[in-house]
Amino acid sequence: MLRIECPCCGPRDHDEFRYGGDASVTRPAHDDPDPEAWYRYVYIRTNPAGPHREYWQHVTGCRQWLVVERDTRNHAVASVDFARKSTLRKSPA
Amino acid sequence: MARYSALSIFRNALSGQKNWQRAWRAAEPKPSYDVIVIGGGGHGLATAFYLADNHGIRNVAVLEKGYVGGGNVGRNTTVIRSNYLLDGNTQFYEFSMKLWETMSRVLNFNVMFSQRGQLVTAHSADQLDGFSHRANVMRLNGIDADILDREEVRRLVPYLDFSDTARFPIHGAIFQGRAGTARHDAVAWGYARAADSHGVDIIQNCEVTGFLRDGDSIVGVETTKGRIGAGKVGLAVAGHTSVLGAKAGLELPIESHVLQAFVTEPLKPLVDHVVAYGADHFYVSQSDKGGLVFGGNLDGYNSYAQRGNLGVVREVAEAAIALMPCISRVRLLRHWGGVMDMTPDASPIICPTPIDGLYLNGGWCYGGFKATPASGWCFAHTIATGKPHPLIAAYGLDRFRTGHTLDEAGVGPSAWLQ
To answer: Chain A contacts of B414, Cβ < 8 Å?
Structure first.
């Protein structure tokens, strides 16, 4: 079982969490008229075989959105942090 | 290549079964080929076969990083059906079904295609209405489809839960009689043998590590067995399309996710059809050895691990018991995982790419096995002519940019929710 060390609740099984996808994707500004920017935001993913920064929400725990860095080949978790601290994105999904 | 026949079995029996030829040669790479197909799974081997058989292009190599049939063609639950709703999918999968119906004869290899019929249960009047819509679309396209009411379903599959306490009572089902299963390894072996007999080199343990370029064009590949030149290169590596696509400089709308499959201990004949549960994600058939072969949802997070997690084992078991309480004491024999290319609309991508000389076949989500022959047929046409086959016109990479997605499930662009 994949375990995620929640900064609030400690180590928990991953099925307490909801997956939120690639955290390296940045949403364009709300008034950005460029369809290419929105296309890339909605669809294009790097999908690495290796370290991947991704959102998880601890839905049956503290309900915080987290950014987890996990290796997609073996699920080794390198880091867990609150998504709201992330500089990549101002408001979590 | 000696043909397989009843006579050949008899003749080899007389010599103690010691004189069978290899099914295909153990080829080593030549300096260059007209076409290199990357990926020795069902789709890659079928592509190579149809390049030779339909288009006369025989100077072809299939490069496989592991062994033939070691990827998803050997990891799926072998279900074949053509019950799709959306234009583009409906016709493509029916074309595939027709190729399945002649495959064993065409390849001279018994793929054990068994048209045992597939039904999907409906658990509300609304769901049955939706299925009627789909069945009408299928019939208008010349595909067999039937809508069954509750009593007809009960006569067909009496072992499902028809009790008063069923969590989701069965209202009816959509049924396709020509759907069924095939022996998945035999599909890979049959295409490999038939392609080889046309002169295609099948090179195993040969991983592609990069692409050779001449200006903006791709003119070959770097492999663990050295450089190999190519007039055209076709990618058929679903599960790892992003990894190879990145080496070529392609940006793709794909995430890799693990899908698990399961087989139980062998039972006496119980499940005569392919049965899918309309209230959850669960589908089951019974193998010729007697094991119940079934699957369910994705694990739900990006993964290249080829192994799944226990949470999904529990979810799938719960769905199984909700539909078929009679198997609650059956023991699981094995479970395994395969890596899926998940696209944002759960439809595949087969097309020429913006990179000259590179052709893409991927994004099969968890529907790739049933598409194997049509995928190979259409991809071979696309590589040979440089233009998409009419049946895959809807499967272009551009559809995401232009808004022409083929979202059969209607769940929006989250790969892990498809």
So the answer is: 21
The total domain count for chain B is: 2
**CATH number of the domain that A88 lies in?**
3.30.2270.10
Domain hosting residue A78, numbered range = 1-26+50-93
DSSP state for residue B86 in the 8-state scheme: S
Assess A44–B contact: CB distance below 8 Å, yes or no. Answer: yes
pTM of the prediction? 0.95
Q: What is the DSSP letter of A45?
A: B
Q: Is residue B3 part of a domain?
A: no
Q: Is the pLDDT of residue B1 over 90?
A: no
- Does B232 share its domain with B334? no
Pure H helices in B167-221? 184-197
Give chain B's contact residues with A (Cβ, < 8 Å): 240, 242-243, 246, 251-256, 300-305, 309-311, 344, 400-401, 413-416
Same domain flag for B75 and B50:
yes
Average pLDDT over residues B135-139: 98
Q: Would you call A16 an interface residue with chain B, using a CB distance cutoff of 8 Å? A: no
User: Domain for residue A3, yes or no?
Assistant: yes
Does A61 fall in a domain? yes
Domain end: B320, B342, B364, which one? B342
pLDDT at residue B271, as a whole number: 97
For chain B, the first-to-last Cα distance in angstroms comes to 43
Q: How far is CA B86 from CA A83, B92, B322, B404, in A?
A: 38, 10, 30, 12
Instruction: Please report whether residue A55 resides in a domain.
Output: yes
C-beta of residue B310 within 8 angstroms of C-beta of residue B299 = no
For residue B252, the chain A residues in CB contact (below 8 A) are 44-45, 47
Contact B311 A45 (CB under 8 A): no
Integer Cα distance of B152 and B161 in angstroms = 14
Same domain, B299 and B315: yes
Give the side-chain half-sphere CA count within 13 A for B209.
Answer: 8
Assigned token pair, B5: 């026949």
Q: B152 phi and psi, to 5 degrees?
A: -65, -40
Residue ranges making up the domain that contains B138: 118-178+256-342
Eight-state DSSP code of residue B349: E
Residues B281 and B407 in one domain: no
Per-residue pLDDT of chain A (93 residues; tens, 9 = 90+): 689 999 999 999 999 999 999 999 999 999 999 999 999 999 999 999 999 999 999 999 999 999 999 999 999 999 999 998 655 555 555
> Between A and B, how many CB-CB pairs are < 8 A?
70
